[in-house]
Amino acid sequence: MTRFIDDLAGAIYDFFKFIFTSICYLIAGMLIVGVPLYLIALVFNMLQ
Known about the structure:
The chain is mainly α. It is about 95% helix and about 0% strand. It has one helix at about 1-45.
């Protein structure tokens, strides 16, 4: 029974670790793409 609980806890831990890692990569990608695009749009807005 304790082995089952240990495996279940490990599976839950892996699932939440995967979700957290995915969210971190999503936020990092949005920052890497979004900030330069915002700055480029700001420069073109100033040139107008």
